[in-house]
Amino acid sequence: MIKMSGIPPEIKSKLGLVQIYTGNGKGKTTASLGLAFRASGRGLEVLMIQFLKPPEDYGEHLAAEKVPNFTILPLGLNHMMSKVPRETDIKLARETLKRAEEEIYSGKYDLVILDEINNAMSWKLLSPEEVITMLKGRPENIEVVLTGRGAPKEIVEYADLVTEMTLIKHPFDKGVRARKGIEY
Ligand code: ATP
Ligand code: MG
Questions:
Q1: pTM for the whole structure
Q2: Residue 136: pLDDT above 80?
Q3: Is 150 helix (H, G, I), strand (E, B) or coil?
């Protein structure tokens, strides 16, 4: 049974894969935003849930307000710098995963992007097993994108599409700080 969100069945019936954008090079979150833009153009309902990153001051939040059928929920608190997980980081990551589950299982969205969730797994705030269990039970024909560095091998094995952004050069290494409109 195909759940309908208002898009034609010939488009909807081909959705339902899991994609991963990982690696140390720039372009993981922006690739998923590019996909969101394209999907919106075809009338897909798109949701991005942001793990870990601070909730304010991203160009994509301002742009999403102007893009039809595209919602961003910034649910992170800050970039966790410590390699040792803090209780608050674990609790928030779990709550955010729960929210992701509710939104995915609602059937309202055709494309759901879980931004920086790979970092949450890599830092052991979430286990790949719990993320896979959540994804396995989801309604049919919902495409899911997982972004962030360090995607664990279990989730890479489970996914259908995996792209690794390779760091060759980044201006950060010559002292150029994050720029408005380019990095955020
Ligand atoms: P973007 O959001 O620009 O697509 P990303 O999602 O691939 O980047 P993250 O690991 O989420 O990269 O990076 C967080 C921030 O660090 C972003 O502002 C990003 O532009 C910047 N960044 C990405 N790659 C590097 C790098 N190799 N060195 C320094 N900063 C980086
Ligand atoms: Mg990112």
A1: 0.94
A2: yes
A3: coil
